[in-house]
Amino acid sequence: MLPVRCFVVLACALTLLAPVGQAREEKQPAAPKELVLSIPANSELYLSFRVAAIWKSPLLKQLLAELGKEVQLFQELKLTERELGISPEQITRVTIVSTDLKASLDSRMPPTLLLETSKPMDTRSLLRLGLLDAKPRLIHGQTVLVAGQQAGLFRADRQLALIGPLPTIEAMLDPKAPKPSGLLAQVIAQAATEHAVGYVVPKVFVEQAERELKLMGFWFVVRPLLATQQAAVWVSIGYESKGQGHLQFTDEKAAQKAFKVIQAMQTLAAVSLENLRPSLQGKWQAASKFLARVEKILEEAPLEHKGKSVSAQLTLKLGKAEMARLLKEAVIPLRQAARKAQMSNHLKQIGLALHNYHDSYGTFPAAASYDKDGKPLLSWRVHLLPFLEQEALYRQFKLDEPWDSPHNKKLLAKMPAVYALPGVRPKIEGGTVMQGFVGKGAFFEGKRGLRLSDITDGTSNTFMIVEAGQEVPWTKPEDLPFDPKAKQLPQLGSAFEGGFHVGFGDGSVRFIKHTTKLETLKAYITRNGDEVIRGDE
Fold first, then answer.
1. Which run of H or of E encompasses 101?
2. ∠ CA(105), CA(227), CA(222), 5° rounding?
């Protein structure tokens, strides 16, 4: 629980670097280069990451090369690079500090962010963190931008930025403030050489864990660990990764009790891995062999009890060839998960656009537009373009001509990404699997669009747009035919193992299993059948 919550704080702080609107051009006072910062002695959270060193490590390079650029991590990094004008290898260090961890987790007092780079950054983006209307103030000889209780400081060369609550920044600039000691001082010293370090005063987690463990009946088993006063870890990353963890307790007796619990947990973890390995045989051979080695490392990992502290060390060697085998097994499901997330997002955008269309016209779009003789011209996917921020593309269509007219056919190649199947090249030009059912009782029926009031089964129980099994040209007025009496449905979903994605009438997106009964699927397809649906059977 502890590491997860700590990294949530880190993620929240880094997310603040994302764009939130256009910043004003403002000149800010520059602080002298001989800036000296001190970590407050009463810090309850201290995290420091040598980003460039981690990014350049051979292990991470191999990992990122295998993951592929469609993974969300790359999208976030592109966003940060665009906003700050610096790439990950130019971020020397990211440090997060909080003197009131509970207030930071509750968003009452955000943690302080210290960003160090090897290249000047665009400080205008950082000014958006509540500092657009800030005024300069001299604090301990340094010019600080202050807006209410939020403050920021930028070094003259724009290679260091400090943003956070005013009291924390005042403490960091105060040359007479108490200096960190004990475990915190040790962690700060390790930050100079290790890839990542962390320190936390876990009282806020202890309080929550105590309540939860009492409910689960584990209270007396792990109770000694809840006496932890401080916790720290530092890690170096590579083909030989090393990590150390330290816990400090109220007194030597408490540490001794906790040491016995940790010993038992160490044995339990090794046994759990031993029991897990047989289930990985076959499809996950590399993972099974890797876990066998981790199991041995856990069994032999040195634990030490000294005075009021308990410490542990782990060393994991991982060859390049072994890493490649592990990644080969792991990357496929990772990419699948990334593609599923993108697919879900596409359907959500389409669902929102359909509802915005309804808000504007009083109905959803019909499956197609028609000429005066009743011949279908263009798909609903074309008429939805203005609600997908594609107004310019929509204006290029000749709406009184069919989809395959000499003019309109040229626009097949301009299919918006929202209609594409993530990570898969269309088999036909402008091919899409984003389709709806057309027929009696379905979302598309007749030549006029439906109103929300026509969906009497409830929007959360009605298929709107589904992931079809076969592509159609995105501008063509062609979707999935539906006959309530049919003994089978058109093919649904072939890109994802086990099922297909569906955008429901309420805007939600779900993954429906291929094993779902035909009767259940028909009930979902119809909007007014009054069927009782008992889950995705």
1. helix 101-105
2. 95
CA-based radius of gyration for the chain:
29
Backbone torsion region of residue 416, taken as left when φ is above 0, otherwise alpha when ψ lies between -120 and 50, otherwise beta: beta
Q: Which residues, 6+ apart, have CB-to-CB distance to 78 below 8 Å?
A: none
User: Could you say which DSSP state residue 451 is in?
Assistant: P
At 236 the three-state DSSP class reads strand
Torsion of CA 364, 369, 371, 377, to 10 degrees: 180
> CA–CA separation, 242 vs 155, rounded Å?
34
Query: Per DSSP, which regions of 328-462 are E strands?
Result: 368-370, 376-379, 431-435, 437-439
Task: Please tell me what DSSP assigns to residue 69.
Answer: T
Domain map (residue ranges) of the chain:
1-17+31-201, 202-318, 341-525
Q: Which of 232-241, 290-299, 447-456, 483-492 has the lowest mean pLDDT?
A: 290-299
Span 442-495, pLDDT tens digits: 999 999 999 999 999 999 999 999 999 999 999 999 999 999 999 999 999 988
Do the beta carbons of residue 440 and residue 482 sit within 8 Å?
yes
CA 88 to CA 117: how far, in whole Å? 9
CB 94 within 8 A of CB 112: no
Q: What is the pTM of this model?
A: 0.60
Structure tokens at 451: 């109103």
